[in-house]
Structure formats: C-alpha cells, structure tokens
Amino acid sequence: MRNFLFAVITLLFISEFSIAQENEINNDSILKVVTVTGFSKGEKINRQSAPIAYLSPKELDKFSPHNPVMAWNTLPGVNLEQRAVSSYRVSIRGSSIRSPFGVRDVKVYWNGLPFTEANGSTALNLLSNTQMQELEVIKGPAGSLYGAGLGGVMQINNFPVSNYSPLEIQLSAGSFNQLNGGIKGQFETGKFKTFYAFDHQQNDGYRDHNSLNRQNYQLSTRYQINENNQLDLHLLYNDLFYEIPGGLNADQFAEDPTQARAGSEPQNSSIDQKTLFYGIGYTSFFNENLSQSTNAAGTYTWFQNPFILDYKEDQNREFALRHQWTYDMNLNTLEWKWDAGLEWQYADNSANNYGNVDGVKDTIRFADELNIDRKLFFLQTQIGIDKWEFTIGLSSNLLEYQVNRVVNAFAEPFQFTRNFDNELIPRAAIKYQWSDQNMTFASLSEGFSSPTLDEIRTNEGSINRNLQAERGRTYELGHKYYSRKIQFDATVFYAGLRETITTYTNPDGVVLFRNAGATNQLGTEIGINAVLYKNEESIIKNINSRTSYNFYEFTFDNYQQEEEDFSGNLLTGVPQHTFNQVFDFDITNQVNLNIHYRYVSEIPLRDDNTLFADPYHLVNLNAEYKLPIQAKIKLFGGMENLFDTTYSLGNDLNAFGGRYYQPAPGRNFYVGLNWKL
C-alpha cells in the first residue's frame, strides 16, 4: 500500500508540473501523436482513458528482422517470450503465469479481424515481422468491448501501408545458420489498394533440436467503393515447422544451455502446421454521426505435434464475426458517443492422440470431436462535458465447450459439455483533460478469462472438469503528458483476481492446470519517449530516447495446496522489476544507430518461492546505412545479447524434475540488405 500511495502522489505531482510547463511549449509537434483504436475508435492515444502502448513500424525496424521479441519488450507492461524458435508466449502484466506455451489470456486482432481462436488461444507464430508492422496494446481487462482476457488486447496491423513501394526486397542472414528472404509491395489502381508479401525464414536454432522453417504468403486488398464505404479482403497462408528442444534442469542449464532435453530428438518433438486464414472487412459511414464496421474471418489448420509422450494430430476449422456500430452526437457543450455490437466465434475441431515410437505415430489412444461456441455482446457510452469525459461499458459473455470422445483405448467413449455462466463485465472510466497535452484518467474494470481448450483438455488427453474461469477487478489511475519533445505515460493499478489459473507438471512431464485461490496484483508502469537532441546542421542529427519501467508487487492470497500454504508468496513467473532503455541516433543523413538495454529482476519459478531465476541484463545493437545513391538501398546489421548473458526466456513454472529453464540465445548477430523500387 505504501508503494501505491507513493505512485499516486507521483502522478499528481507530474500532472501539476506538466500544467506549469504548458505555456513554454508550442504546438509544432516533433514526436508524432498516433491515432489508435483503444476504447474509442479513431482517437489519439493521449486522449484515451486507458493504458495503451504503441509500437510503430519505424520502431520495429530498428530491431532484428527475424523475430519481434526485443522490439515488443521495449513497451511498458508487455513481455514477449520465445521458448523455442517461433514458439512465442505473451505476458501483459504478468498474464503468462497460466501459459506454459502459446498465447493465452490476451485477445488479438489482425487488421481488424478476430485472430484469437474460439478457445482463447492465439497462434502468434502464424505471423512474421512483415505481418506485425504496427502494434497497439490495451493493458488489463478490456472485456466491456472485447470480451474475455484479463491480460489485455493486442491490435496488430500491416495494411494498408502509408509510405508504400510497389516492390521491396529484403535479404538477411545471421547466427545459427539464419536465413531470411522476403518480397512485398503495395500498389494502387483506381479504387483499389493491393498489398502482397512472401517471407521465407529458416535457421538451426541456438539449441540442439531447435530448427525452424517457415513460409508466409499474404494478399490484402482494399476497394474504396465510394467516400463512405470501403471493403477489405485478406488472405494469409502459413507453412510452419519447428523443433522443440524442451526444458532443462539447473545442472543441465549451467553445464550446456544449448543442449536439448533427453528424448526430444529421438521422439522428434516438434510442431508441423499449415494454416489458411482469410477474412473480409466492410466499413460504412451513413452520415457524419453514424458508422458501422463488420469483420468476418475463417481459419483452417492442419496440425501435427510429435511429443516425448505421444503424437498429436489435429484439424481445426474456425469462424469469427465482429460487428460494431458507432454513433456520435454533439449537443452544444455535450459530446455523446455510443458503441454497440457483437462478436461470435465457432470452432469445429478434431483432435487425435497416438503413441509415439521414435517420432512416428503408433496406435491411436483417443480421438475427440470438439465444438466451441463463444458469444460476446457489448455496449459502451462516452459522455464528454467540457474537460471531463465519462465512460460506461457492459458486455455479456457466453461460452460452451463440447467434447465427444469417439475413440478411447483405455475406457469407454464419452461426451462432455461445459457451459460457463454468463459473464456480465462492466467498465467505468473518467478522465479530465487539463490541456491539449495533459490528461488524467481513472478506471474500474471487471474482467474474466475462461479456461482455454488446451487447459480443459490437456495435451495428453485428460479432461479437467473442475477448472474455473479467472475473475478479477482492476482499479487504475493514469496520467498522460504529450508535448513536442516528450511523451509521458504512467499508470498505477491494483488487480484482485479470484480463481487464478496456475500450472504444474506431473511425473510424466505433462503440464496440468489448477485454480490457485486469489492473487493481489499491485503495479506501476511508466513509459517515456523523448527527443534529447535535434540539430540538422551537425553530424549527429537526432538523438531520441524510449524508456519503460514496470514495478509489480504480485502476491498469492489465500492459496493452499494440500499441506502447503503459499499465501503471501510472490506470484510465480512475474519479475518485480523490468527496465528498458533505447537510444536512437541519426548520424548524417545515411546512418542510424539503435542501442537497447534491458534489465529483468529475479523471477519466482515455484509457487513456494524456494527457487528463482537469476536477474539478467541484455544489450542489443542495430545499425543501418542508406547508400548515397538514387536507388533506395539500405544495409543493416545488429547484435543481440552483446555480453553473451546466459538466461532463460520462457520458464516452465512448477516443473517436475526441476526442468524450469528454456535457454535463450547467447551472443548472436545478423546482417541484411533492403531494396525498394
């Protein structure tokens, strides 16, 4: 509570200081103020009454082209982990505690289309850096507008491109036999804008049995029917294969972090999947007050996963629909806005588990037919009076799982249906706009996160009939100050969660899930973008800075397992301190240098807090050189983990046999060339 009060006082002091400085700053903006979706479509980020982080295409390009990990991790409150090459795990405010693999507890949209599966999981590895050019993150519960997910919402975009070229080719190579090649472009003809992209990526990985081979094909087009109506079409095909080296214990991690877990290679532990994702978006403006947007998407995935214990083979078919109406009214000094709509997702999947004999599937163990039906209805109103704005939102959330086990080698086949209670999720927020550059907001949000299908039907095929949805309430106080040379975002929050889902492994190494009572989550997040130096007449043209810091005091409350009481312990998998500092130098008109420093404090690996992952420091470098010729050719290169730090990125929590560690790459480099027509 002392830290909470200190953070509140700090925010109020900054607010007063910012107002005092207001008259010293003109309106010629040097730092761009972006327009984001957030809780109010088409409003600038510094006027949204919610904690929102944003990563631009320019900022993403200053990091490795091979994956988005380090770029995303510069954002306050966001942590992207990579347990194996292309095996991502996203944590927003510590939400990865329940994600042994994959992305859960976070809702993801891609170019406006619902991208998260009906079961609550997101296959982020379907997207290469080309498909993830722009990232917007709403941190914390957003259920009043977007449904389930206590972690938050991510909006990922790459179309249309503002500064486009009809043809762009990029080639790069690096450590671990890394090879990337990509061709993309956008062209306009009449009322059409069309974007195309092809990416190939391969490498052997930092560890044994850790190779990757991925191809991505994208075609997107926009037809501007008239000034009030537009139609978007998207087609994405992904062919992905990567090997899974598995977790190591402390002795193995210290002896040789590049080794794979025993049994991973002989059993060909790996992921082989092919996915077709397609969608359509239609936006129309009926008049200056009323508009609507409709986005529909379909997915077909063929999936194979040989594992040490078994061999899994799935076919997933999904459909998603989101429809939203927006109405604005201006009545003298009163501004009134309404948003209402629905989102529906349906999945028809089949999942078969076989024995695994030397990496080849053997006798079938069980076969399941799975149906998932998820519905969301939402309504939100925003009322602006003078410098005040009030937001009230409410959503209704329905979820049903149906499991029909048609083949069971160990018992009788069965059917299982799980209907979760209708979750009514409210959100209320208030903001005060001190000036064009200063805003303070406070919000109260209810949230919930239902178990994913992978948590109810675990990897080895058992059914967890008792797992409950997580529920929580979050209080937030934030301040935003945006001027021509500095952008400041700070948020203090407290979240009280009930039925928190945590992970553990059984003696066979199977990841299982359980509800862990309640947790108390007190946090502070700070993000600062600043122009430190600008002089067009000198050799060094610009020095820009981006800083982020998180402080999380997350603890268990009323959590007991058998004879052990973990109440008061630090929440597993969540560091208390995370700090990022980025310096960006423009030298002459040809050279750019980007320096990134990252610090993560120790991380609890067990619920009993008897073991912690060591804190670590990382330094990453990236340099670009634009050739002084008429052709637009850019040479680039970089080095990650400059000081060869040994650390784990994506720990296995409460792991049986002490296999907590998923070693991250040591010192590694990349070089490349980019050419635009």
TrEMBL record:
Residues 221-642 form the TonB-dependent receptor-like beta-barrel domain. Residues 1-20 form the signal peptide. It holds the Pfam family Plug. Residues 48-153 form the TonB-dependent receptor plug domain. GO terms for biological process: siderophore transmembrane transport. PROSITE patterns: TONB_DEPENDENT_REC_3. GO terms for cellular component: cell outer membrane. InterPro entries: Beta-barrel_TonB, Beta-barrel_TonB_sf, Plug_dom, Plug_dom_sf, TonB-dep_rcpt-like. Its main location: membrane. GO terms for molecular function: siderophore uptake transmembrane transporter activity. It is found in: Cell outer membrane. It is a multi-pass membrane protein. Keywords: Cell outer membrane, Membrane, Receptor, Signal, TonB box, Transmembrane, Transmembrane beta strand, Transport. Belongs to the TonB-dependent receptor family. This is TonB-dependent receptor. The lineage of its organism: Bacteria, Pseudomonadati, Bacteroidota, Cytophagia, Cytophagales.
